[in-house]
């Protein structure tokens, strides 16, 4: 809001009857906050209308001005909602206001709370616009927490599931490391009323994920997603030969094998019996010939991980002692 374009409220006819209410900092403020004159005046007039609980067009205008100065003022947002309801104001115009503010202040909690309130009032007529809105935000910041949270709420409250899996695929094509897109994909396959749930989607999702893993085996997100497809079903996890086969393929490649090894350990801890091929592949990963061989493939894998995954070396020592000490 440019000061040269702004007419002071005290000079505007529509506010001539308003007696401003100054901020009360007490009789002896220790460190008085310095405010710009335009901000101070706007808030003084806002306090007057708020105190009078005036729900009028000028009150609505004043909340717009106050929000422009400070989009984080939750009291102003709250009062604005009361005014909007009293005036039965066009809420589609309200969506335009929040979008404008989001261009420079997209991580404002009050903004997203207000946006949800508006969308909830509009109902399913807002579904398409809300999905487009979050998509625009995510195109600038693919891990924007507020946008993802709002998008999930929209899907559950207002619908719009039909194209969401395709949207996730599009994001992963752009960036296979986008853990937020993997998280959203899991949200869709487990929550969408059109896909049949996790078990119904498991086979196709396993194929999709294994292809992503082979393409980029160093991407932890895809490995975590794969494990999530077998939540509460360790038997199916252990007995799917596709998974152990991909682990073996990546371990044999001797590059970017940390997550393949950790997945193999998880399989073994739940009952998988590794063949001699796995023992030979893990043995081939030893840093040097001086490193002792271990006939137990799980212990050998832990030893390799202690060496190559130094950040989690202590974790792998603990994992070995917890799961395979008596093997």
- Compute the CA-based radius of gyration: 29 Å
How many helices in DSSP terms? 17
SSE sequence, one letter per element = HHHHHHHHHHHHHHHHH
Strand content: under 5%
Class derived from helix and strand content: mainly alpha
Round the mean pLDDT to the nearest integer and report it. Answer: 93
Describe the structure concisely for a colleague.
It contains 17 helices and no strands.
Please characterize this protein's 3D structure.
- By secondary structure, the chain is an all-alpha fold.
- 64% of the residues lie in helices and 0% in strands.
- The chain contains 17 helices and no strands.
- The protein has helices at residues 37-51, 57-69, 74-87, 91-102, 109-122, 127-140, 145-158, 164-174, 179-191, 198-215, 220-228, 234-239, 241-253, 258-269, 276-283, 297-308, 313-323.
- Helix 10 packs antiparallel against helix 11, helix 13 (241-253) runs antiparallel to helix 14 (258-269) and helix 15 runs parallel beside helix 16.
- The protein is elongated and about 90 Å long.
List keywords for this structure.
327 residues, single chain, mainly alpha, 17 helices, 0% strand
Can you lay out the helices and strands and say which pair or pack?
Elements: H1 37-51, H2 57-69, H3 74-87, H4 91-102, H5 109-122, H6 127-140, H7 145-158, H8 164-174, H9 179-191, H10 198-215, H11 220-228, H12 234-239, H13 241-253, H14 258-269, H15 276-283, H16 297-308, H17 313-323
Helix pairs in contact: 1-2, 2-3, 4-5, 5-7, 6-7, 8-9, 9-11, 10-11, 13-14, 14-16, 15-16, 16-17
């Amino acid at each position: 809001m440019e000061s040269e374009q702004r007419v002071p409220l005290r000079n505007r006819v529509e506010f001539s009857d308003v007696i401003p209410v100054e901020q009360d900092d007490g009789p002896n403020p220790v460190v008085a906050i310095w405010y710009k004159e335009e901000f101070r005046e706007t808030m003084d007039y806002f306090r007057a209308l708020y105190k009078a609980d005036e729900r009028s067009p000028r009150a609505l205008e004043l909340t717009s001005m106050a929000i422009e100065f400070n989009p984080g003022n939750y009291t102003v947002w709250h009062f604005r909602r009361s005014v909007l309801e009293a005036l039965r104001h066009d809420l589609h115009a309200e969506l335009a206001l929040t979008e404008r503010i989001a261009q420079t202040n997209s991580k404002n909690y009050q903004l997203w709370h207000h946006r949800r309130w508006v969308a909830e009032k509009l109902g399913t007529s807002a579904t398409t616009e809300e999905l487009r809105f979050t998509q625009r935000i995510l195109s600038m910041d693919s891990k924007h927490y507020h946008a993802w949270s709002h998008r999930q709420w929209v899907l559950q409250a207002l619908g719009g599931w039909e194209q969401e899996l395709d949207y996730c695929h599009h994001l992963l094509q752009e960036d296979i490391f986008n853990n937020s897109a993997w998280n959203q994909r899991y949200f869709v396959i487990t929550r969408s009323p059109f896909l049949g749930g996790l078990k119904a989607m498991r086979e196709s999702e396993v194929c999709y994920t294994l292809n992503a893993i082979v393409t980029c085996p160093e991407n932890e997100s895809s490995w975590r997603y794969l494990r999530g497809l077998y939540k509460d079903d360790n038997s199916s996890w252990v007995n799917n030969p596709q998974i152990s086969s991909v682990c073996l393929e990546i371990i044999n490649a001797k590059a970017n094998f940390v997550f393949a090894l950790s997945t193999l350990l998880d399989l073994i801890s739940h009952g998988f019996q590794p063949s001699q091929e796995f023992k030979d592949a893990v043995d081939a990963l030893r840093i040097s010939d001086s490193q002792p061989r271990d006939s137990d493939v799980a212990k050998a894998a832990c030893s390799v991980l202690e060496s190559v995954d130094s950040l989690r070396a202590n974790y792998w020592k603990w994992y070995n002692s917890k799961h395979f000490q008596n093997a």
